[in-house]
Amino acid sequence: KTRRARRFLASVAASVVKCQLHGSRILTNIPAGASLRRRNSYLGSSEHRDMAWRVLATVSRGSAGARTPQGALRALSAAPASADLTRNIGISAHIDSGKTTLTERILYYTGRINNIHDVRGKDGVGAKMDSMDLEREKGITIQSAATHCSWNENHINIIDTPGHVDFTIEVERALRVLDGGVLVLCGVSGVQSQSLTVDRQMKRYDVPRVAFVNKLDRAGANPDKVVDQLREQMALHACAVQMPIGLSENHEGVVDLVKRVAYTFKGVKGEEVEETDVPASLVDEVEERRNTLIEAVADVDDALAELYLEGDEIDASVLTDAIGRATKAREFVPVFMGSAFKNKGVQPLLDGVVSYLPAPTAREGVCALDLENDEAPVPIECDSDAPLLALAFKLEESRFGQLTYVRIYQGTLKKGDYIQNVRTRSRTKVPRVVRMHADDMEEIDEASAGDVVAIFGVECASMDSFVSGEKRGESSRLAMASMYVPRPVISLAVAPKKGAPPNVVDAFGNALQRFTREDPTLRVHVDNESKQTIISGMGELHLDVYVERMKREYKVEVEVGEPQVNYREAITRKATFDYLHKKQTGGSGQYAKIIGYIEPIEEETFEFVNECVGTNVPSEFIPSVEKGCRDAIAKGDLVGFPVEGLRVVLQDGAAHAVDSSDQAFRAAALYAVKRAIGEAGAKVLEPVMALEVSAPTEFQGDIMGSINQRRGMITNNSTDGAQSVINADVPLAQLFGYSTDIRSQTQGKGEFTMEYKTHTSVMPDQQAELVKEFQARRAEESK
Fold this sequence. Notes:
Layout: H1 2-22, H2 36-43, H3 46-55, H4 72-75, E1 86-93, H5 99-109, H6 133-138, E2 145-151, E3 154-160, H7 168-177, E4 180-186, H8 193-204, E5 209-214, H9 223-233, E6 238-240, E7 242-245, E8 253-256, E9 261-266, E10 272-277, H10 283-298, H11 302-309, H12 316-328, E11 333-337, H13 346-356, E12 367-370, E13 376-379, E14 389-398, E15 401-410, E16 412-414, E17 418-421, E18 427-429, E19 432-437, E20 440-444, E21 446-448, E22 452-456, E23 465-468, E24 478-479, E25 490-496, H14 502-518, E26 523-526, E27 533-537, H15 540-554, E28 558-561, E29 568-570, E30 575-583, E31 590-600, E32 606-610, H16 622-634, E33 646-654, H17 662-679, E34 683-696, H18 700-709, E35 713-720, E36 723-731, H19 738-745, E37 751-761, H20 764-782
Parallel strand pairs: 1-3, 1-4, 4-5, 5-11, 6-11, 32-33
Antiparallel strand pairs: 2-3, 7-8, 8-9, 9-10, 12-13, 12-24, 14-15, 14-23, 15-22, 16-21, 17-18, 17-23, 19-20, 19-22, 25-27, 25-28, 26-27, 29-34, 30-31, 31-33, 34-36, 34-37, 35-36
Helix pairs in contact: 7-8, 10-11, 16-17
């Protein structure tokens, strides 16, 4: 062990010298007096440390055309050189388009990790960004994960987001705080449903983006089709800045249309990028595509348009600047190409991220809200010397307490500083500031404007804003705008298994409390009628994941069932009542008589009308009669749900001078109305949802057939290009499991939303079945 320690310290000393030769920086966040073990922990796992020393032997130029990875020790550096050299990007796409695979290659080529592990790799390790066991088992990203790396002297903060529609909130909160996005598209499937959702999210937050057409090694890949879909389905002004060299099994590399050079990727893992002249067979096509690119950019950039109209030669630097201006202005989307899984096209994409996406200092239109001036927008600048303003956009529970991800919009956040929560006005000291690398953390002393970091020990809610709290009572009242949170569309009833000990029940409650803090789309409530704990979310997979997490993280076995559908009961005709409540048990008894009728009304409400004349029913007992009527409709006799759409009219009655009381008249009203409802043709109502399904037109027939099978009534059917939108009214009881069915029917390309519309009568056979089930359940409970 001593010999290994000495060799390690010797390598550190040698590496410092080599870092100086390469112009790189050693980790500035390692305290000078740290022990060897602590130094190792700062560098992360052993493979990270091995990677740092291995990479020093490689060429460190930091651009396509050089051997990669490069600048490993700089990649492990704790802080960017300046906000101008920072890029905050999110990688988003439809599920299974290759986002996490692309992120894994980016981390490897930038020297952030030592080896490549695939999402469903045979080695069983899994991709770095999929740190949750569930993610590795299912082969999908469930939570967004943050990391950082360096490329060509630029510091890049990356958030890898889920592609499944059930976890769309992770994409929402990432795009809320990032300055640019990489929209990944499958070269075979093209634009898919979640691609459209991500596009709407990027537009919502004015996020510039580049596109990456992935999986060009697969049979049927057609990048030109994908570019056309970007224009037609997303209405983006998109154009390819590259063209592939071969497709499917013949895919070898890409041609850069801007520089007129070809890139091929050699080495075991594509780490060697060879820059060559364009193959002779492609020269004419390259020139044609380059002219198309110039025309597309000239349509949105006046400076380039002027040069183009004058017939001047457009060199690479001029075209690069024009593409950058148009992209940052959200008027153009450059499209890159490659195959992340086959290690092709990733390094040129990194060059494009640096060249075309904005630094935090270049982002225009960023405003805070002045809470003391009716939330008036206040422009802010990315200035490290300005007062602190940061936004908490993601929360996680860790073994060290709550971990809060923050984006710093202005000012500097330092370890040990006091900050103030603008919403709660609470003042807190920041005990730790860390930089995230998936589930690994690197402790740092400070972070400046434009950076994305995490802090420990600060209690807050998602989307809380923080300002400097060094001086009590003098903090700013500026806050950043929150994000859009979609409404849940599906619910489940959950409970600890019967007979669970108190500590398990407590753990169940703690789990739900934690999950709802972390995920704004997860809602929890106790149903007043069924007394079940109901969790609501974005889809069945969304809820299944949380049920599984309760089992794994809290050791709580959960019983899951469909929540009881909130049926209602109603009457169909008028019925009269004439009821005498008389009870004598010694001493003062109970006496009350009421006469009247009940009738159905259109509104889904209850009405009580007093038409008594005289004092047969004393006025002081009228409120008790109304209370008794309400008791009667609280739980119907058909299926045990409330009765609605009912009017009760009190016409006459009788009272006793001694035995009449509030209790007597309340009981009389209860029994009278119960009996009358049984004679008024009671029926069962079920909730009906307004369903909207969006899917490619080719699946239209299957979707309509499925809706008809679920007793749905189609109200509208429209087609917009290749997409069909079907609207229907469908009973809620028929929609459980529909999210799985719609994805199966549409190959994952369909999506749906639903919301409550009304209650309508069930079919007679269904009512008979519901009544039978209720009677059996009541008989079982009475035993």
